[in-house]
Structures
1.
Amino acid sequence: MKSFWRRLILENKFDPESAGYIGEKFNHFLPNALGIKPIIQYLVSTPDLLWWAMAVFTVVEAIVGLFIMLGLFTRMMSIGVFGLAMGILLGSGWLGTTCLDEWQIGILGLAAGFTIFLSGSGKLSIDYFLINRQYKITHYKWFNWLGSGVLPVKLNVLHRIVFTGSITILFITLFTNQYFHGGVWGELHNKSIKPKIEIEHAKISDNSLSFQVFTWTSMVLK
């Protein structure tokens, strides 16, 4: 909800001609993204699709955030939280100057999404109100999976789900922290303030040297 409010209400960041265009910031994710770099590169090279991708992402963020706050279809929204967090983690987990900003947001989102899926919502949620009033929608088996209530699985199976999910998130936490920042072993590094620089297409023509310099900001200098 905060992102939706900031991008559309406080300031229109969907105008490709404006200095704060959200697509320009998305371009910064490209150099060191993990696993999804081809997707980011394709979107950056097709501005029309990039605009739609940013619009869809923002709307989904707003819907997921609003429903989580209201406690409506909580478990389904927790899957949205998990997915959005994974996108942030893989795309921009390496960003951050004084602290590991985006990495922390991504990891927290993964852990929160998984936890909320297991627990569902509490007594102050719309899900609980619907269950307490015995609305017809709560009698369907799928409501327990997408809304709240007791998950219809055996306790020993639930224990395996909790253990497997926890170990998986722990692995993702350690692996991405090491990959992006070297925070598990070895020297720490911060690609945001110490970017990798690549020089390509260097040539001398008419006593003039020309080349292209690529940095983490994906800007090209000639």
2.
Amino acid sequence: MCRFDPGMEEFRRLLDCLGLSWQGYRRVRKGIKKRIRRHMQESGYATSEQYLVALEQDKELRTECERLMTVSISRFFRDRALWHALEKKILPDIIERNREKIRVWFAGCACGEEVFSFAILWDQLQGQFNTLPVLEALATDMNTVYLEKAKEGVFSRSSLKEVPDEVRAKYFLRQEGEERYRIMPLFRMGITWKLHNLLHDPPDESFDIIFLRNNLLTYYKPEISRPALQKIIACLMPGGYLVIGSHEKVPVNMENMLPFENFSYILQKKDRTQSSTI
């Protein structure tokens, strides 16, 4: 039988082994521990000591453990103030500066709610501009199960609870006999889905917006997340925007990132014309 301490000490040791933050997992640890117990049992490890040693030696085992530690808690248009700022200020600013193409990276896209929220918002901007730039969207996650769900584009009614009825009717098809909704095929086009670990080198591209919400800065220890964040910020175009979770903070030494208006979780990368405040 698999013995994984229902107390906290061994779970802390697992988090330390993976460079993960105790604080980040405090609200979700019950479900995560169940996943890890099952993984230990399926992999043939009777104790957490054996499992932790194996994680250091077996790359495949470690990769699967890291996948099981990922958390997907999202819904469409989560944090309405963010989406209002995108619609009224941020996207018009980017469109005015770049009329041909904009690139957006959804780093840690989970099951795709955020990606498709953006696709809907982008479509709604059609009425405000004569022409829109080409949108190139890259959506990445380290969890293959989440990526497959995102590609499928089917969501429960609870995921759409902040979506008005008229928007749901326009952009989704209700699955027959189910309280589940599939995003219209048109709005799945133009999105590239890729497997990617945020601790690894980022894509070799430059982006106008990077969504990095409720993942790297929540679940990893600062000594792990900081260098990864610096590489991610290096992918931002001058004047580009980084969006993090509403309760997250970037390290204080990110001097090239300025808070956008009164949003602590939207930061803009300095360009030559900007001063210390926006």
3.
Amino acid sequence: MRFFTIPGVDAPQGKWVSLSLPRRFVCELMHHAKTVPSIPSQRRMQLSRVIAARNARPEHISWCAIFMKAYAIVSATRPPLRSTYMRWIWPHLYEHPFNVANFSIERIYRGEEAVFFAQVRQPELLSLVELDLLVRTHKAAPLESVPSFCRTLLLSRLPTPLRQIVWWLGLYSDGGYRAYYFGTFAISVVAAAGAAGLHVLSPLTTNLNYSSFEDDGAIDVRLTYDHRVLDGSTVARALVALEAVLCGEICDELLASAVQTQTPLAVL
């Protein structure tokens, strides 16, 4: 649709494209995320041992599952990472008793590339194999079979005034509701496409993302945090702990999983 013409210009006209339901959800998410005074913090990690352990399995565990569990282990022992800033009825911090991970998945919705979000309660209690299966299931299962995807589409179908009320209630009315529907931390990465977000906006207290690996196993890991809840030194120590967990517990579990996978072949 064009309200005026440009004299002397004979070019194909553009068109208006309505927001799809997933795009409408992301617009609402960014509306609330931009109110968070977030700061990105980065640490270059050396994960060559983790890469080798991961490659020892015939079927590789996804990096999303690996980082999700590692960060959940770190957050489980650090209550500030499970806390969130709540501004109603008066400003205060709410500390959730356990982790709820939120990770993004790209899916095709009615011919359009769209982003959906899924939540995992206490991922640190799941094995990497279980967590990897869960991630892969969310990537391949029919959209209508995933509850969080259905909530996204249902919410985005609501009229604007009602949709805004539901968003406000979910994010600001109660810390427990907020953790259940949105998570206590988020993971949003595009490293598989050879890119990385430098400052990922999110309404959550922390958002983890990482770049692609260098040839020597080095990788830049970023944690964007809400400065109302956390300070830079706390986040820096969390990143140090994350690298230690990746090179310790996670690496050990990957190696143990590889041995279990290869044992039946050895018997035969």
